[in-house]
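Running this now, will post back.
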Amino acid sequence: LASLSLPSSMHLIQVDSVQRWMEDLKLMTDCECMCILQSKPISIEKDEHNELLLSSQYSTCDNLQLLLKRAWIISTELTRIAQKLEKGRWQRVHSMTVRVNCHVRSMINEYNTFTRNASEEMHQLEKLLIDKCSEFTAFTERCLQTEDEEILESMKSCINKTLTTVAQYFGQLIEMVLTHEAQNLLRQIELSGSPYVMESAISGLFSLAQEGAHLCRIIAKEGGVVALFKICRQDCFRCLYPQALRTLASICCVEEGIHQLEKVDGILCLADILTDNSHSEATHAEAAAVIAQITSPHLTFTQHLSSFLENMEEILTALVKLCQEASSGEVFLLASAALANITFFDTMACEILLQLNATKILLAACSDKGIVDTPYSRDQVVTILANMSVLDQCASEIVQGNGVQLLMEMLFEKSSSGNPAEVAACERVQQKSAVTLARLSRDPEVADAAVKLSCIPRLIKLCRSPTERNNSDSVLVACLAALRRLAIMSPGGLEDSDFQQLVKPRLVDSFLLCTNMEESFV
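Update: finished.
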């Protein structure tokens, strides 16, 4: 039932299932018996008496989180109703319909306690949804009063149609509510001259943007990118720059956000911030985060960033400087991530970085464990080196900066926590270090340094031992390529069995041999 699916704004952070159940429990307990009480106001007065209601104790952000959790529960219940209906579980269908009816009324009531300026259109949609939920409950109740299979089967299509309508009204209401809240926050930013009010509104926008791509599209559509860049162009609001830029980085994960950024000359604004030495390091770091977001190689809609090329050299210069002067690992990570993405974005970037001595600066930073302190940071550094290694001039700089030694160390990258994201980052570090070695080893000086540092035995180990590469096929392919390049430059460094299995055959044959090695050792 595609019509029952909610927008991606309903996405919630993945947490432990027991913790999720505990959080949901307080919203689901005794919902049938509380339905009537919760769906009526305690008093007709709208001021002090309504403060008795639970939801009014929270801030706007807390209320929105409560609303989104309630909406997530309703969405889940609607999907389950469709499944039970398909199986003809009429008793379960009815009890779940009653529960959805309760949740819908509770959600609307909770939302109306903290929203004072809801539109007439929203109230009409709320009424439509409540009426349709009541109709839905009545339908399912009638189904319990008969056991005639033919009658039940004939009613099923009618119930399905009502279920689809409920889901449709519900999705429209959530969309309208979230749009309304985004408009309210943007109105506060536009009309208030108070930094405190604006800071609170920006914080609310950031919280909304964290709920997923759909929310980011709503914010962009309602003028969020324009409003935030307007702040970043006013010196009197410099204290708000980091927060505004952080929110921009979140919103610009969607095409609509980047289009708006382009329309307001956002690239030029970011370049001005990055090159202005009077700004704080925090401001520079958040500007780098926006650059990293809009140049991400995972996005497919960056081709229109024509103004980026015009400002690329000064942006690269500022980012290299930020890497060199970074006071923390987080600042270095943001700046290096932006640099890494730009090297994918345009090939000319690598030539500019070479002129800026970026190789030397990045290699020096890697020796400071307080700055390059995670696999994520090393992933950015080795990405830059891999993309720069296509340039012939890069090889000598990497050798002079002990870069081959660093690449060798990266072949040993292992996760200390076992966290899936960190494990994936370690795999990328191993893969890209092998790719960089393969590209650079066309230079005899690099190949000689790699052989002297025992890179060949390590590459063989990674090929032959699946656990060493965390069973990663991409690491295996990269290591086979690097090994073959080094074998050409230094054929005496391999035993005959390694040569016969890992170098002489076609790459695909060696790959298949290595991927089956785990089975042969058992």
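The radius of gyration is 29 Å. More later if anyone needs it.
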